[in-house]
């Protein structure tokens, strides 16, 4: 669950949401809690399906990832209320689902009908016990995806809904990171705090996968990739050790990747 997003200072979505501050010489501005929400753009859509109220610490990229959308789409859908994406505000209401008739900028890529051999088939060094058999939830509309392991190391941190939105896989600097399924690169960069050098793939309208803390990114935004293709090199950017943080997001929401990955 949530996309070049290359991290340059002029990137339209690097800045987090802003509280309404004060200018030099002006009277103190009201705190966030004191701002009348009716004065913020999009207030009339608050609470409606397909809309999101901006929280402290949000960025357009983070909001897009959390809702399974391309960050460019989110900007485009909200151009009339957010003329400057660098200045979204706490309490502002943004559209996070396509308006009627809108076409996504990242086309849906169908998953391959059968898994292909990949690095996932190598034994996991140091693995104490095999992973549990997958109990993959069923997607609607023929959007099942047969995922493979994105790296060959053992799991060093499992999924925790509150603390860890995916799994962490051990490895050495430079180890290959591969696409878990066919997809489209909707994010490649370092603009999401806590993820380091990050790649996000969109597999269809239901599933996204995220690959974090890489030392090198080998694909670019809008590029199509195939299952098992090397997309990055493992690293420790924005992490305490070399590892791959891997997430599966179903309709924008994080879910336990081990439920989708084959036993090994």
Q: Which descriptors would you attach to this protein?
A:
single chain, LysM, Glucose Permease (Domain IIA), 264 residues, 3-stranded antiparallel beta sheet
Would you summarize the structure shown here?
InterPro entries: Cell_wall_metabolism_enzyme, Dup_hybrid_motif, LysM, LysM_dom_sf, M23ase_b-sheet_dom. This protein is mostly beta strands and 264 residues long. It contains two helices and 13 strands.
Integer average pLDDT: 76
- Structural Rg: 19 Å
**How many H/I helices?**
2
Number of domains: 2
H/E series: EHHEEEEEEEEEEEE
Shape: elongated
Residue share in β-strands: 15-25%
Q: Structural class of the secondary structure composition?
A: mainly beta
| CATH H-level homologous superfamily name of the largest domain | Glucose Permease (Domain IIA)
- Spans of at least 5 consecutive residues whose pLDDT stays below 50 are 1-34, 106-141
Q: How is the CATH topology of the largest domain named?
A: Glucose Permease (Domain IIA)
How far apart are the termini? Answer: 25 Å
Highest-level CATH class of the largest domain: Mainly Beta
How many β-strands, per DSSP? 13
Tell me about the largest β-sheet. Answer: 8 strands, antiparallel
Domain LysM: 50-96
Region (Disordered): 1-47, 117-141
Family: Belongs to the E.coli NlpD/Haemophilus LppB family.
GO molecular function, one term: metalloendopeptidase activity
Task: Describe, in plain words, how this protein is organized in 3D.
The structure is a single chain. The chain is mainly beta and 264 residues long. It folds into two domains: 1-102, no CATH class; 119-259, Glucose Permease (Domain IIA). It has two helices and 13 strands, in the order E-H-H-E-E-E-E-E-E-E-E-E-E-E-E. The chain has helices spanning 60-66, 71-77; strands at residues 51-53, 93-95, 155-157, 167-170, 176-178, 183-189, 197-202, 207-214, 216-217, 224-225, 230-233, 243-250, 253-255. The strands form three sheets. Strands 3, 4, 6, 7, 8, 10, 12 and 13 form an eight-stranded antiparallel beta sheet that branches. The protein has a three-stranded antiparallel beta sheet with strand order 5-11-9, with no helix packed on it. Helix 1 (60-66) crosses helix 2. It is elongated, with a radius of gyration of 19 Å.
């Amino acid at each position: 669950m949530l996309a070049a997003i290359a991290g340059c200072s002029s990137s339209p979505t690097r800045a987090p949401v802003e509280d309404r501050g004060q200018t030099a010489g002006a009277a103190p501005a009201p705190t966030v809690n004191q701002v009348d929400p009716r004065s913020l753009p999009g207030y009339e859509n608050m609470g409606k399906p397909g809309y999101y109220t901006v929280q402290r610490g949000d960025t357009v990229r983070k909001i897009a990832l959390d809702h399974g959308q391309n960050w460019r789409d989110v900007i485009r859908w909200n151009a009339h209320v957010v003329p400057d994406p660098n200045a979204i505000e706490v309490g502002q209401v943004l559209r996070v689902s396509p308006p009627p008739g809108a076409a996504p900028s990242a086309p849906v890529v169908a998953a391959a009908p059968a898994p292909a051999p990949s690095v996932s088939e190598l034994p996991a060094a140091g693995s104490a016990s095999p992973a549990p058999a997958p109990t993959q939830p069923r997607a609607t509309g023929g959007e099942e995806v047969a995922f493979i392991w994105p790296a060959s190391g053992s799991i060093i941190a499992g999924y925790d809904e509150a603390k860890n939105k995916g799994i962490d896989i051990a490895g050495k600097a430079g180890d290959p990171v591969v696409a878990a399924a066919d997809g489209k690169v909707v994010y490649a960069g370092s603009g999401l705090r806590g993820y380091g050098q990050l790649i996000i793939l969109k597999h269809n309208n239901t599933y996204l996968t995220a690959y974090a803390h890489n030392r090198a990114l080998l694909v670019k935004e809008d590029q199509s990739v195939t299952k098992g293709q090397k997309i990055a090199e493992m690293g420790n950017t924005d992490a305490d050790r070399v590892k791959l943080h891997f997430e599966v997001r179903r309709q924008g929401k994080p879910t336990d990747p081990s439920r989708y990955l084959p036993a090994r």
